[in-house]
Design goal:
alpha/beta
Amino acid sequence: MNDKPVTELSVIDATKNEVEKVQLDPKVFDVEVKEHLFHKLVVYQMAKRRKGTASTKTRSMVAGGGAKPWRQKGTGRARASTIRSPLWRTGGITFGPQPRDFSINVPKKVRKLALRSALTQKVRENQLVVVDQISLDEPKTKKALEFLKGIGVTGKSLIIVDEPQANLTLSVRNLPKVNVLPVAGLNVYDILNHQVVICTRSTIKKIEERLS
């Protein structure tokens, strides 16, 4: 990793030609990378995605069982007090899963610090690409591939947009290694899970407003 401070990045066009420079806020894109926070935030995000809706019936929830199935003695069968016993096929479940909330709490300040660390790491590893504009005149996968090829991106990439772009979203949905994410949904897991992060100058400003 390159630890040299980066205060500006080149802005390229659709053919990878530099058109200008964009200044980066060092409070967002040049901070101390705290890698231990990455694990904390990924666990936090994965826990929030868990449904926690698995549910089983205990013996108190199973219908029936008001009367003793047969008398205690003299039948030759094992003693049974209720058909709701977990020993019975139609009985309750012992220690089965119940609905629960798996989410954990991580302070907002820590979440922001982890985001800054992830973005700083991308900048230092030259994996943050800034383009002058991202606009597709029609929703076609071929157009999206041409755009990515033009700016020299071939790996798993995350395109961050400052406002919804229907054509772009529809164009990349058939590309398994490309995803589109609004600034409001920016998170550590998606940043780390993609090799390259692509954004525009206006997106950089939106990110700085959110995290500064």
